[in-house]
Amino acid sequence: MTLVRVRRQGNSTVVTLAQEIVDQAKLNDGDLIEERIDSKGRIVLEAVTTQPRISPKMAKAIKTAARDKRLVLNRLAEHDRK
Amino acid sequence: MEIEYPDRDAALAAYAEAMEIPFEQARDALLKDDQLESALARPRNAAAYESADLARQAATLFWGMTSDHPFQPSPL
Question: What is the pTM of this model?
């Protein structure tokens, strides 16, 4: 458990996340976090899992390629495992 | 014919599909973000600066991805 300080920065109230929290939660620059107060009055920060933004054409191409080349991909994965 | 270039999300989705893992795990498997971005930029650069055709553009992307290894090897 780490203690962090609440700061005023201009008109905003800011808290800096400890690095171990960032690492454990696997947060990346630009990720969305939902913030709320739970029934016990705790501040909850929850990472929002967004679906990747891919065009339908791209998504179809990816699925088709993976399906058509499944045997090759499995062979390559097998090779990695050795 | 309009060429559609894969972006970071597309690369992650392709990795997830190829490795048969969820999309979130693909993000974890990404070791070198800069190298992924630079590999993804190659085909467009080749088109702009070398007048590369579609095959050559695809080859530059393939080259960038395989020589830079932005993803970690299979953990399986």
Answer: 0.66
